[in-house]
Amino acid sequence: MKKIFKLALILGAALSIAACGGNAKQADNPKNGGNAKNKSTATSWVPKKDIEFVIPFGAGGGNDVMVRKLIEIIKKENLCPVNIVPVNKKGGSGVVGYTYLKSKGANNEYTLSSTSASFYTQPIVGNSPFKVNEQNFAFVAHMVKDPVMVAAYPGRGFKTMKDVVDYAKAHPDELTWGGVGNVSDDAIIMYMLCDVAGIKIKYVPYDDGGLLQAANIGGHIDLSVPSIAEGTELMKTGKLTPIAACADARFKEFPDIPTTIEAGYQINHQQSRGIIMNPGVSKEVREYYSGLFKKVSETKEWKEFTEKNGMTPAYMSYDQYTKFALDTYADYEKYLKLVKKTGK
């Protein structure tokens, strides 16, 4: 009897081990909804069909390049059990794309979209019905910030933020600050500086960055805020003078130039790029996607991509990104009112 009992125990244990081994293989198989290489994204939900990633801008722009790099890394590293398909829906500075996203309906688990500055500005200026809140969007993950450098026309002789502020206080409305468009981050940064420093500077809008930098180099305007990607050569060759990094940390290309906060001005506003969905999706869905993009943010390829393009890696999980997005929208509302007030 004892021998029979022991034999039963051995057989039971062997069957249990075999079952566990079979489940483990099935769980690791992406075709079975497994978590592939990315065990950090394991949740009670995994995608079972292809995912559509809406890019609310045209091909070749900064947003498009970022999204396609995300998808490329996910595929290369086998981080997702299904395909992620990029779809460009350009028009209306992002409004066409967000309208398309909304047409997919609440609770849609298989449509993502990217964000940029216009995600915040367009509803504030009345060009989009989709205010940035949790009733309209579910926030998934924040990926990067696009920092800029406050730069001056060399003929002005400015070297520091204090030089600029002191001159502006002594000569109200004399200095000119150029930017792309009327309600861009370029304008926001200028109005933030005017607000915190108690000064007046004239804002001059341009249609594109090339015209803007040509104007600054030629002395037609006094100040601008080029990104590192577009401004490094101009500042290295002395065609523009770097004043302060509007960033979380000093740029490695200009280690001796302080940040705006180090210079005493709380204006380190930067363009934010993140990922959103329609509202109504479960916590498990957002956890899955949030974990997926966290894994991307930790890859060597992503870090090299952001460095090459002058971006600041700034991954935030879905809960962190939600708070950040709502706070950012409030900042845009505050400073765009200053733009409207001046009639610019």
Structure description:
With 344 residues, the protein is an alpha/beta fold. The chain contains 11 helices and 11 strands. Strands 2-1-3-10-4-11 form a 6-stranded mixed beta sheet, sandwiched between helices. It has a 3-stranded antiparallel beta sheet with strand order 8-5-9, covered by helices on one side. The protein has a two-stranded parallel ribbon with strand order 6-7. Helix 6 packs across helix 11. The radius of gyration is 25 Å and the shape is globular. The relative contact order is 0.16.
Itemize the secondary structure elements and their pairings:
Blueprint: H1 2-28, E1 51-55, H2 62-76, E2 84-88, H3 95-103, E3 111-114, H4 117-124, E4 138-146, E5 148-152, H5 161-170, E6 176-180, H6 185-197, E7 202-206, H7 209-217, E8 223-224, H8 228-236, E9 241-246, E10 271-277, H9 283-297, H10 300-308, E11 312-316, H11 318-342
Parallel strand pairs: 1-2, 1-3, 6-7
Antiparallel strand pairs: 3-10, 4-10, 4-11, 5-8, 5-9
